[in-house]
Structure formats: structure tokens, C-alpha cells
Automatic annotation (TrEMBL):
Keyword Transport found: yes
CDD domains: TM_PBP2
Record's subcellular location: Cell inner membrane; Cell membrane
Principal localisation: membrane
Protein's UniProt name: ABC transporter permease
Annotated SUPFAM superfamilies: MetI-like (SSF161098)
Organism: Paraburkholderia panacisoli
Region annotation Disordered: where it falls in the sequence: 292-317
Keywords, alphabetical: Cell inner membrane, Cell membrane, Membrane, Transmembrane, Transmembrane helix, Transport
Length: 317
């Protein structure tokens, strides 16, 4: 009798449970569709103005739109007037990158290895320029070094400002990757084999820190090329970089020339962003850790004896 009652109850509840199982995927589908819709709308909100600005730099007359025709006249005019700013921006970015590599990589390594309170204080001091507005940092540099006329009028003054602003990005990227990898064990093993500090740094630290170095280098280049606030305070008529020239074109010239300047700026920065994705930069080491876990799992499964039955193949009589 009890078995008959149980079977009747299961028959009554079976359609309900089946309907609930059918409803859940539909709910998940609607949620996923909503998330995709919000993401696409946000992307359109950010990308459409950039596309419209680029189109403005390629049209004969912005106010008439595409009906006026397409032209490269504004790009040619911008290059003729501001090619000096382009080369100066590249030179400043290259000098900034070189200095941050020489100082930021060792600093990031030391901060990752050291666990003292002093190292944390130094790290906070290095990050301080990011917390301050660029105008404040530029004003501090002018107050301290503005009296040195030749230095103040040279591009080296802008390089110093860019180094102060971008150095934390290099230090934090290198420190993050050095802290995530077990460099101390590798260095101790190399030291036991007779390697000195320079040999350990070149053959162990630098190869393992490469993702952080690449991430920091690309961040330094993009930030240096696009930095405006600090550069606007430090520049002179002879040391005008790309962002300052872009502001001048939008303020004093036709909107088509300003938009063409935006295209030129876009052409310079996009390859760096694409390179970051193409190189698969992983400064935090999360993807490397995931691959390592996947490799360990594959090794374990491959090392299992072939005669060991899987749990699914075990049946009870």
C-alpha cells in the first residue's frame, strides 16, 4: 500500500518538477540576453563618439556630413603643421620608457621581495603621483626646478614629469608578477649552484618578470603619449606634444582639423593597445596559474592506471 501511495505522489509531482526544469533555462537565457544588451549599449555609448569624430576628420564639410564627400586633405594639413609634435611625443615616450625600465624593474623586484614596513612606505610614496592631479604634480616640478632656465625650456623637463607620473605603473606591474611567482626558491637554487646576483637577476628574475615588464612598458608608452594635464603645464611653444597640439586645434581651428588630429592620435595609440592583447599580457599571473592547474590535472589523469575503473563504470547489482 505504501509503495502504491509513493508512486502516486511521484506521478503527481513529476509534471511540476519537469515544468520547473524547463523554466530555469529560459530565465537564464533572458538574463544573459539582458547582460549582452547592456554591454553592447555601453560599448556603443563609448565607441560611437570616437567613430563620429573620425568621420568628421575625413569629410569635406562636417556640417554637411558624408554628403559633402570624403577627403584626406585635413590629415595632410595636420601632418604638415604638427609633424614636429608627433616626433617629439614619440621621443618623450621613448625616453620615459627607458628611464622607467632602468628604475622601475629593479624597484618592483625589491618591493616584491621585501616584506618590511619601510618597503610599504616607499611603495605608497611611489603611487602618490597617481593620487594627485597632474596639474598639482606639474606645479610642484615648476616650483622646484622652474628656476633652471635651460632645463625648464627643454623636452627633458617634460620627460621628468612623465617619469614621475608613469613610474608607479611599471613598478606595480613588475612587483605583481614577481610576487606571484616563486622567485626566491629559484634564486636560492641558482645561488647554491654558484650563480652570483647579476647572473640570477638576468637569467631568472627578468625572464619570469617578462609579462609584468611588457605590461608596464605598454602602459608607460600609452600614458606618456596621451598625457595632457601635466604636459600642458610643463610645455613651452618649442616643446608641444600631441595632446597639447590636439587641444590647440580644437580651440582655434576648424573642427575637421581637430578631428583629423584625433585620427593621427588614434593611429599612434591603437597599435600599442592591440600589441597588449596580441602579446597576451598577464601581469597578475592568473592565466598562467590556470594553465598550470590544467596541466597538473592533465598529468594526473594521464598517470592513472588504465585498469582503474572510473566511478561511472562501477555498477551495483
Amino acid at each position: 500500500m505504501n509503495s502504491i501511495t509513493a508512486s502516486a505522489r511521484s506521478a503527481i509531482h513529476a509534471p511540476t518538477s519537469a515544468r520547473s526544469r524547463l523554466r530555469m533555462p529560459a530565465t537564464r537565457t533572458w538574463l544573459a540576453a539582458g547582460q549582452w544588451l547592456v554591454t553592447l549599449l555601453l560599448c556603443a555609448f563609448l565607441i560611437v563618439p570616437v567613430v563620429m569624430s573620425i568621420m568628421a576628420g575625413l569629410t569635406v564639410n562636417y556640417f554637411k556630413g558624408l554628403s559633402s564627400g570624403l577627403t584626406l586633405r585635413w590629415l595632410v594639413e595636420v601632418w604638415a603643421q604638427y609633424h614636429g609634435s608627433v616626433w617629439l611625443s614619440l621621443e618623450v615616450a621613448a625616453a620615459t620608457l627607458l628611464i622607467t625600465l632602468l628604475t622601475g624593474v629593479p624597484a618592483g623586484y625589491v618591493l616584491a621581495r621585501s616584506k618590511t614596513r619601510l618597503s610599504r612606505i616607499v611603495e605608497e610614496c611611489l603611487v602618490l603621483p597617481i593620487a594627485l592631479p597632474g596639474l598639482a604634480s606639474a606645479l610642484a616640478l615648476l616650483v622646484v626646478y622652474g628656476g633652471f632656465t635651460r632645463f625648464r625650456m627643454s623636452a627633458a623637463f617634460i620627460v621628468v614629469g612623465h617619469v614621475v607620473f608613469t613610474l608607479p605603473f611599471m613598478v606595480r606591474a613588475v612587483a605583481a608578477i614577481c610576487a606571484s611567482s616563486d622567485l626566491r626558491t629559484l634564486e636560492e637554487g641558482a645561488a647554491s649552484l654558484g650563480a652570483n646576483f647579476f647572473q640570477r637577476f638576468v637569467t631568472i628574475v627578468l625572464p619570469n618578470a617578462r609579462p609584468g615588464i611588457v605590461a608596464g612598458a605598454l602602459a608607460v608608452l600609452t600614458l606618456s603619449i596621451g598625457e595632457f594635464n601635466l604636459t600642458w603645464m610643463l610645455h613651452t611653444p618649442d616643446t608641444k606634444t600631441l595632446p597639447v597640439g590636439l587641444a590647440d586645434t580644437y580651440a582655434s581651428l576648424r573642427i575637421e582639423i581637430g578631428s583629423a588630429y584625433t585620427i593621427l592620435f588614434f593611429i599612434m595609440t591603437m597599435p600599442l593597445l592591440v600589441a597588449m592583447q596580441w602579446l597576451g599580457v598577464d601581469a597578475t599571473g592568473q592565466r598562467g596559474a590556470a594553465k598550470k592547474r590544467g596541466g597538473v590535472a592533465a598529468t594526473k589523469s594521464a598517470s592513472m592506471p588504465a585498469s582503474t575503473p572510473s566511478p561511472e563504470s562501477i555498477t551495483t547489482p
